[in-house]
Amino acid sequence: MATPTQWLQGARPRTLPNAIAPVVAGVGSALWLVGGFGEISWWKAALALIVALALIVGVNFANDYSDGVRGTDDDRVGPMRLVGSGAASPGAVKAAAFICFGVGAVCGLILAIATAWWLVVVGAVCIAAAWFYTGGQRPYGYIGLGEVAVFTFFGPVAVLGTQFVTADRIDWVGAVCGVAVGAISSSVLVVNNLRDIPSDTESGKITLAVRIGDARTRILFGVLLAVPLVASVVLVAATPWALVGLLAAPLIVVAYRPVQAGATGPGLIPSLGKAGLAMLAWSVLTAVALAVG
């Protein structure tokens, strides 16, 4: 039986900014759109946050289960894997994943009933994407599409979804924030897969990093980190306060340094955490700027 601490490590708490940031950016976009704190639905914002958190923890457990039973995690650098390390049985980890998906589904259903029925379809697609990332007979994460999924679901889908359920409509500001958050969220997976190129290559997991190679993956990481800074400049068309988002630049630089310096293996782990913090910082700063604007 895994200990509570091991279960917490298996949930990969460092990935939680990937769930929190798009909801924060979505709420900021909604505030800009409706023009006041009293004009958006805060209880829906809270449910959207629960959905995002449930999905990301669920996908982390699902990845742990699927990679563990395939043997991909037998020789892995980074956070503890419950199945790969033998700390928990595959069945227990799979059950934990589906419990998280269930929590997200229930909260998402409430949002759909209160907002729009077609959100049920969006939620079902999100849960399917979370499972089939590494699950099923042909997981898309094993053919280099993981970054595309992370960009899509933790970027435009999550940001615009939050904006829609809280403000009843979306606009170009939400779309720009969605692209920015999606890019930096995807960068977290990029550097994670950069770290795992040797083990993934050996196990047959063909991630995007394995496909394009070490050098190009490092360039891609830098480009994705720069997108939120460009977005801050674009959002000046909505409000000059958007430039406040540029204050996240130091964290972005710190996240990029190990990658730029050619770090490998455990040396890339700090970039994972710093990229997540940079994403959260940019989202909070931008949300505040949009609210003030």
UniProtKB/TrEMBL annotation:
Principal location: membrane
Pathway: Quinol/quinone metabolism; menaquinone biosynthesis; menaquinol from 1,4-dihydroxy-2-naphthoate: step 1/2
Keywords: Cell membrane, Membrane, Menaquinone biosynthesis, Transferase, Transmembrane, Transmembrane helix
Superkingdom of source: Bacteria
An example Gene Ontology biological process: menaquinone biosynthetic process
Pfam families: UbiA
Membrane topology: Multi-pass membrane protein
Catalyses which reaction(s): an all-trans-polyprenyl diphosphate + 1,4-dihydroxy-2-naphthoate + H(+) = a 2-demethylmenaquinol + CO2 + diphosphate
Known role: Conversion of 1,4-dihydroxy-2-naphthoate (DHNA) to demethylmenaquinone (DMK).
NCBIfam families reported for this sequence: menA (TIGR00751), PRK06080.1-3 (NF004751)
Family of the protein in this entry: Belongs to the MenA family. Type 1 subfamily.
Designated name of the protein: 1,4-dihydroxy-2-naphthoate octaprenyltransferase
Taxonomic source organism: Gordonia bronchialis (strain ATCC 25592 / DSM 43247 / BCRC 13721 / JCM 3198 / KCTC 3076 / NBRC 16047 / NCTC 10667) (Rhodococcus bronchialis)
Lineage start: Bacteria, Bacillati, Actinomycetota, Actinomycetes, Mycobacteriales
